[in-house]
Design goal:
Length: about 550
Amino acid sequence: MNIKLNKKALLVLASSVVFLSSFKSDTNSRYFEISKNLEVFNAVYKEVNEFYVDEINPNIFMKTGLDAMLESLDPYTNYISEDEIEDYRTMTTGKYGGIGAVIGKRNDKTTILMPYEGFPAHTAGLKIGDEILTIDGIDASSKNTNDVSKLLKGQQGTKVKITIKRYGIDKVLEFELTRQQIKIDNIPYSGMVNDEVGYVHLTDFTENASGDVKDAVEKLKDKGMKYLIFDLRDNPGGLLKEAIDISNLFVSKDKLIVSTKGKAIEWNKEYKSHNTPIDLDIPIVVLISGKSASASEIVSGTLQDYDRAVLIGQKSFGKGLVQTTRPLIHGTQVKITCAKYYIPSGRCIQAIDYSHKNEDGSAVKIADSLKKEFKTVNKGRKVFDGGGIEPDLKVERKEAPAIVVSLLQKGHIFDYATLYASKHPTIATAKNFKISETEYEEFTLWLEGKEYDYKNKVQKNLEELTENAKKEKYYEDIKLQLEQLHSKIDNNKTLDLKKFKDEVREALEREIVSRYYLQKGIVEASFDSDQEIMEAITVFKNPSLYNKILGK
């Protein structure tokens, strides 16, 4: 059969041939560049290994190169060596074999900072403030926290012998603990703030986080909860599946929760709620902060986009990137940013553009002028992309006074809480515990002679002003005034302990409470001073305000 092609068809065909040839040429060129650079990398590695003046550790040398290469992309694309696999698995599952305790350095001593309730360290009687001396006969004093942690971890069912020094007891105490599988709680605390307001604090999105939230909410409803505070502050995120399932607890079935878009077609996906929700009506306040990221932003953003909850706090971090882990050879893995995620209104809340860098190599933050407006799904409220989740009610996080920061960093509040607990077998409940005026005076007397120098913001600003005055040759003209200002604001620790008495007391009371009620006690002790929690209660007490914020 003869087929005649007209001029237009011939032009289209010719253009297609040119395009395909160009595409093939571009592809071949790209593969050539990849091959060439791999050869260069291999050649450099070989030459440096052979001729560098000192002996090179091949594992460290290669990992340094891989880390630097991936760091040029974004902070979330990482190489995971064989030695790091177990730590990575712990991070994603929240599980490991060990004794169940947070350890760290206090005054250069390896110390128990927090035993997890119900796990071997706690049930055996280890306490906050205990100094670890030996582990299975190995001296722990000269080892760093990571090395001590490795000694304490091990296969479930194995035993570990620990000797510790406890404040107020002269003799060394010995413990033999049986390691078990430790599951770090996604929810370190859930309970009732008052007779009607329930509170759930989610700190991680590891395996079964959604089941943990569901169980916590249902238990609180059984206790009479009529309002829910869902705390996602400082939550860095985790598993995407758990974020979807948690959103689904409060959003109808078959609703879009999040979509992902990537270079690979397999990552262009939509994720919908697939379960029956547990509650579509209970008023919810979600607390967020500048460190709430990733999965936290999916949940808070979804509930905002469906006008399902009032968000209170500060603008979230702005991590709208999705990672996947790919297996490599020799038991290693690489975690790769594979897509961006978009919440139901259609907005991506990624705050930093890692594909474009400044001259110094730093990533570009998306400018406010480039942010786009979107609408919430149900009520059409204005929301924006490009910079994290904006709360419906902003509450500026109050910075701790310099004296409180110094007392915490120097470990004085920690040490005094340990001393206090050694003298007081019991205290009031965490919600009700307060130190007396006499006890506060005893604390200030104990501080005498202890080092905790600090500079407040005004002092730092004045020092900067003095330096600039000297550079600009104005110092001699204003020297007298500067000296007078310095003398007026120089630290007087005794006065600061009175001026910031409330803040110091709050920090001290929380630390003391932890000795008796662990993590849960710290949370309950903060209820009456937590600004965001108090703002949430105010909103719940005013239904018209709650509805107005949500456009109802």
